[in-house]
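Can anyone check this?
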Amino acid sequence: MNQSSFDATTPLAAELQDLTRRRKALQDSKAPLPATARVIAVANQKGGVGKTTTAVNIASALAHLGATVLVIDLDPQGNASTALGIDHHGDIASIYDVVVGTTDLADTIVPSPDHPNLLCSPSTLDLAGSEIELVTMPAREHRLSRALERYLGSDQGARVNYVIIDCPPSLGLLTVNAFVAAKEVMIPIQCEYYALEGVSQLVRNIQLVTSHLNPDLRLSTIVLTMFDSRTNLAHQVVADVREHFPSETLTAVIPRSVRVSEAPSYGQTVISYDKSSPGAVAYQEAAVEIAHRGATN
């Protein structure tokens, strides 16, 4: 390969220079801790948009920045638990037991091997049938909210700075429980065709919950995921989302990344798997941005 291929004007060289600059900026960055715990529901009923990946990697990045973060895996698939290296077989106390009222939230929480500040209340397959059980229960929309309030009001919960709730890819009772428990909603949007499809319905549901069940809830954050800088379509989607949600959309954009896809198979987030990879850098930038936004709200 000749010397000209390493010229700083080539796209690859420019990309590497930019990545090096961003890594350096992250080393010097600080993330303020919120005065009270921020409870954020990560939701999108459209599957395959990077919802769980975003939830666990934002949580891990915040933990590495010094925050204590609790991830509540409210998705029956349990992918967030897997990514955090947490056992989630049927014999353990899980978020299902909390929702149906048989166990306190504190009794389900385990630390993730990813980071000592990263905690998880895991999911099990039992959660898949919980929506049917919830239908006949009193205060069915408030089950998670009340359990979380009790936990955050305890000595054990007082140290938690962020609660990240990974919602199922649907708009059922589990997602409504997450919305009632949360103060903020984060929506990951894939940089692909039909990216905004379904988001309007999700926003309407957030407005309904705000009107009838949780007046403190707001759409605070939109994360653009699976960005491919080589395609015009991805750039157009970014522009469209920023036009529709100018204040909610993060500056940081999450690229398509092999490392991000590989990490869960090792029971890790990409932050611990390969902290210097482009995907990990982007998630760390997003976490810093989220932390600063919370400090100024």
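Reply from J.R.: I decoded it. The first strand starts at residue 38 and ends at 42.
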